[in-house]
């Protein structure tokens, strides 16, 4: 991994949270491995999750009937996208590995991260039709989903109240595939058998470090290159 560029897209409001700690572990481990690590801290950036006409700085193709997909595709070709999208797309282009670090909200990404995906991975930049899965423009990049559930392993089992975690992850994991980004791993932290978040915050530093050590070993073990 030495010399590789890593982008961490991080969505949590609290730096001292489990997600914040996992993000810090990733930065530390990957930096020690010789990677150049960039973090898009979406809440700290106050990233705008809404996909609107304001994302296009030039003239609209069809102002009488606005189509976000068509307008952003044309704006990308002409260099008419707004500044925050251009900055994030540049980070994506430069990254060899993209890590999504987030808590699972209502069985999906937090809204601010979904908005980042909606606004950045637009047609023309990340994919085109037809055949997006075969001709995605981000071929050769890799991704990792690292997230917390806030529920126990039993809750996200086949017989659990929240349903089998594998089925919940299906649409989330399909997003990188559309752009030919290879998904290396999904790293799921659950309460109960894996870790109890409420107790974790109150534990002695040595015990809290055990949880982070597990995450560190995961990063060191994954075939990221």
Note down, in words, how this protein is organized:
The chain is of the alpha/beta class and 225 residues long. The protein has one domain: Rossmann fold (3-Layer(aba) Sandwich), CATH 3.40.50. 40% of the residues lie in helices and 18% in strands. It has 9 helices and 5 strands. It has helices at 18-32, 42-45, 68-78, 83-94, 111-120, 132-135, 165-178, 197-200, 205-221, and strands spanning 5-10, 36-41, 97-103, 142-152, 182-191. Strands 2-1-3-4-5 form a 5-stranded parallel beta sheet, sandwiched between helices. Helix 1 crosses helix 9. The longest helix has 17 residues, at 205-221. The chain is globular and about 50 Å long. Residues 192-202 have low confidence and may be disordered.
Question: In brief, what are we looking at here?
Answer:
This protein is an alpha/beta fold and 225 residues long.
Keywords:
Rossmann fold; alpha/beta
The CATH superfamily turns out to be Flavodoxin domain
Spatial strand order of the main sheet: 2-1-3-4-5
What would CATH call the class? Alpha Beta
User: Ends: how far apart?
Assistant: 6 Å
**Known CATH architecture:** 3-Layer(aba) Sandwich
Q: What value does the Rg take, in angstroms?
A: 18 Å
Structural class: alpha/beta
Q: Can you tell me the CATH topology?
A: Rossmann fold
Report mean pLDDT, rounded to a whole number.
Answer: 81
> Count of DSSP helices?
9
Uncertain residue ranges: 192-202
Largest sheet: 5 strands, parallel
Bulk shape: globular
Number of domains: 1
Q: What letter string, H or E per element, gives the SSE order?
A: EHEHHHEHHEHEHH
Strand composition percent: 15-25%
How many runs of DSSP E, i.e. beta strands?
5
Percentage of residues assigned to helices: 40-55%
